[in-house]
Amino acid sequence: MQDNATEVTAAGIARLAGVGRAAVSNWRRRHADFPKPVGGTETSPSFALAEVEAWLRKQGKLAEVPLRERVWQQLAGHPEGPLTALVHTGCALLLIHERPTVWLDASAGSDARLAAMLPGALEKVLTPRVGGVRGRRGTGVGGASASASAGTSGRAGAGASAGAGGGVNGVFEQAGVNGPSNPPAVNAGSAPTAVNSGSAAAGVNSDPAVPGVNPESTAPGVNSAPTVPAVNSSPAAPTVNTPPTVLNDSSVHNAQPTHGESAVHNASAVHNRSTVHSTVPGTPAAIADSPSTPTTPGAPTPPQTTPTIPTASLTPTTPTTPPTPALTTPTGPQLLPSIPLLRGAAELAAEIGARQTFEFLLGRHLDANPRQYTLTPAELAGLMADLAGPARTVLDPACGTGALLRAVDPRPGQELYAQDSAPELAALSALRLALHSRATVRAAVGDTLRADAHPGLQADAVLCHPPFNERNWGHDELAYDPRWEYGFPARTESELAWVQHALARLTDGGTAVLLMPPAAASRRSGRRIRADLLRRGALRAVVALPVGAAPPYNIPLHLWVLRRPDRTPAAPEVLLVDTGRFAGETRGGPDWEAVREAVLDAWRAFAREGRLAERPGLARSVPVIELLDDDVDLAPARHLPPAAVADGAEQLTRVRERLRETLRLTADLTPPPADPAPAARWTLTTVGELARGGALVMRTGGNGGHARVPVLTDHDVLAGTAPSGALPESEEEAVLTEPGDVVVPVLGGGAVARVIDGATGGAALGRNLVLLRPDRTALDPWFLAGFLRGTANNRQASSYASTATRLDVRRLHLPRLPLEEQRRYGARFRALDEFERALRHASRLGEQLVRGMYDGLTDGTVAPD
């Protein structure tokens, strides 16, 4: 049954019917019975999908729509929006993946029956896999008010609010991780211990079967010994509580712990060591060696003996509310509008698999909204995961869409922890990871720096692509946070706050890999923290990536590799790597294979030996003492010797000879003088008419397909270069080019058309390109490409938006000529194309020669005479 509430735009109708948008506009004007708009705006209306399909079917205009396109249209036009639709679909796909027979039984009946049965079935799957809890108002994503419950502004914006009734049994009872202010004790014994708080007593570790964090350590239970101090300090008034004070003063804790959580914050229960927060101004990470003020007003100060311990065991005290789980089980009424979509997704999953179905829908949504999300490319995520190495427990504190955790190599008993301030991203990450692997996924919503959802976690690895240049990251609220072990970050150094958060969540010897802006390596405001990271051996490597590796694509980002110092002496050297030489010449991105090989080879050699022999222009290990100057500048390019240019002069000589040969060829290819001719009066046709008549086939690009193949981008066509792009793998078949095809860019306003040759054939067609495959018995490819390049032709077929020009290829004209006459024109157009290629090649060689001469003269490898 089709959902009448699902809406579709004019562009969607065009895809359904296999026509252009102009045809849809004509139908609306010419047919009085065309469906009326049900939403959208006056300039961009939306229509009921069911009514549109019925009308197209009645008119005989409904094309054979692939199931993938139909499901996507249902998701994109969902009445609650595509994000809610994605979450509901992901939940159903996880149920199909985990318990297919349950889905088959529930979906056998009516839509109302399926909506009523799904919540119970979903909860049995979501709770063990992603920590889902029953949907309620103001908790997580999945309920009607999910987006309003986050209380966040960006991934490092305003502090997160958990919302009323935000139970955390789904996320944290399964993992045994302490919540921010009222965590359960870990390994507290066989029987739960009641805690005497101001409200009803809550059991500690009511489920003894749930494993704790760091189970290899024998952690004492709450109240197991009167000598173990519990810590319940606030940034404004640090206190050390004796056990009687903790048990009887309910004002120190949240009075109503939910879902069996204890209201006692005992850090020693997690780390098996006493922890005391000292908030002496100027030394936020110091350890107190003297008693503090008791929490009970007027109570005498008891003598305390507190051992000095590593600051890694300190638990932040800033959060005052339980973490919000990333995912809640949607209720029956919430699921009812999504039932047609879920049935379609299940049908698609039967064809391609539940995991592939979710990846396809998520990828389409991300591609349709590129400005809303900052994505981590899959190649970069894989490199970061390889630098971190194999790990059983991995954290991403700014998970986004889950790309980094998805790149982690699976291991038995693996646990993946995630957090993001955007509720929809946290929910989608949880579902994506659960579908991708068998690892236990623990995801939460909240501003990580202000309200860390995993304060007791000691992970083997941390991967993070933090937000850059955030001013509102919590500088004023977090002045005495114990995570600032290496110094309190300046307001302009939010990235160094993320670095220290990552280090605080690592186990001793654990590895963190963060994507950083290059300015973080050299800004003066962060030099003291950088110096302390170097002195204590926490910063192990800085890798400069090529331009275009990740957004923002116009600057060369850095990777920082850090390790939590253990008891071994700090390493005296730091690895610096610069992969800028592997930047791609086009917008296809860098040479990822070369980047990966260079970085991993240098890192593994450095990790084995503690130092790396100099690799000019690429990598070297630098003694820490060389970096500890007034600037503490860690930019690799400033510390690496230039690449060896032993044969620099000989190489420049070869470039010069190639340029001379190319210039001679260019002179030979120069077109002869143009002979005047009377204005021709041809009978014209359009590309659209030729396509309808079968003289050519018209295709658009943008899908990666199942196999990795080179991708011809619009920039490649404009620059006349080889295929250089890449597209993510998808279930939609890629459009592969063949020799003789004509490819036309539709953006940019340039009069360009390229005939595919044997070297380019077989590449996938990229985005913003249209492929025309002429019938050789009716059309000559070079004749077609030549007339499509006419300036006046392109001008009359172009439409203009506020910031771009778009070409409607169907409106391009060309004359109706006999095939022999077409070939005469085609031969002339082909000669012009060869001349143009020679000019471009000469231009590139000239630039290479000029740049090489400048470099050789300035570095002393070329003599001035």
TrEMBL record:
Pfam families (UniProt xref): N6_Mtase
For the keyword Methyltransferase, the answer is yes
Instruction: Cite the record's Gly residues compositional bias ranges.
Output: 154-169
What Gene3D superfamilies does its record include? DNA methylase specificity domains, Vaccinia Virus protein VP39
Q: Where is the composition biased (Polar residues)?
A: 215-234, 247-259, 269-281
Which InterPro entries does this UniProt record tie to the protein?
DNA_methylase_A-5, Restrct_endonuc_typeI_TRD_sf, SAM-dependent_MTases_sf, Type-I_RE_MTase_Subunit
| Source organism of the structure | Streptomyces lavenduligriseus
Annotated DNA methylase adenine-specific domain residues:
358-641
One Gene Ontology MF term: methyltransferase activity
Entry superkingdom: Bacteria
- One GO biological process term: methylation
Give the matching SUPFAM superfamilies: DNA methylase specificity domain (SSF116734), S-adenosyl-L-methionine-dependent methyltransferases (SSF53335)
**Annotated segments matching region Disordered:** 132-335
Keywords in alphabetical order: DNA-binding, Methyltransferase, Restriction system, Transferase
Q: Where is the composition biased (Low complexity)?
A: 144-153, 235-246, 306-318, 326-335
PANTHER family associated with the record: TYPE I RESTRICTION ENZYME HINDI METHYLASE SUBUNIT (PTHR42998:SF1), TYPE I RESTRICTION ENZYME HINDVIIP M PROTEIN-RELATED (PTHR42998)
Write the protein's name: N-6 DNA methylase
Tagged with keyword Transferase: yes
